[in-house]
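[09:14] KT: can someone run the structure on this one? pasting the chain below
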Amino acid sequence: MLIRLQKVIADSGLVSRRKAEEWIAQGRVTVNGRVVRELGTKVDPAKDHVKVDGRHLKEVPPQVFLMLNKPKGYMSSLSDPAGRPTITDLLTGVGLRVFPVGRLDYDSEGLMLLTNQGEIAQALLHPRYHVAKTYLIKVKGVLTDEEIGALERGVELEDGLTGPAVVKKIRKAKENSWVEITIHEGRKHQVKRMLETVGHPVIKLTRVRFGSLSLADLPRGHYRYLTDREANQLRALVRSRQEAVAASREPSRLVAPPARRPTRQSHPARPARPARSTHQARPTRSTRPASPARWAKPSRRRKA
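[09:31] RB: done, structure tokens below
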């Protein structure tokens, strides 16, 4: 099976696909002993010998998908220059390199998806694929119907108008309330900024669903591997979105039928033109206008 060279390198877990493309362009990758610099090159991992910096790629690891219930006070990155706790501290026992699909703020919690499949991760995050993300949020005050309508239509932020959201009222407290919001975008602090725009700052935010995945009863700070069914649902979701986008970009195959030449029956009848003759006949008295002075017969007078 032929696969793009940069994907083979990325699937090996060595680096991301973008970094693999840089290495190919720099001439650091060889296929069967020949340096390859073309990004569109395809190889068969079962037959071709791929090396990076003179070393064979490791055997392609199995696909890994896991779900983490991130607690507050953890960075959603794999490392932090400031030394704050990260989700890596919660992934004890995970032997393969995985990376998060999207992020949650330091003070937010809830469902995080991690995988070693870069293509699927990129597709799940891309806004054109419209993968839904649902949040359970505690806000100050109570949203009015007008404010909910504004969120559902889209609100203007510093980086542009947001896409339509789905908003549900969950319950009301003394001074605050809980709402559930579903969006299909992934801008930085998007949900918090949306609610601040309508005058209701966020007190607590928990992501409860990501695409077809649900946080359910996974304890806070714990993770679990996805079942085969859940992983296949993610793959099917990405595949269906990609096919839909590809179909929308294809030009229409419908060709307009050629225009028919008008027939005489489709137009009102025209008066027939007189036939033309090559010989022009001399005018006769019946064809020339009568001139009373010239053609009138002389009157008969009686002789005296």
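[09:33] KT: thanks! DSSP finds seven helices and 17 strands in the chain.
[09:34] RB: yep, looked fine to me
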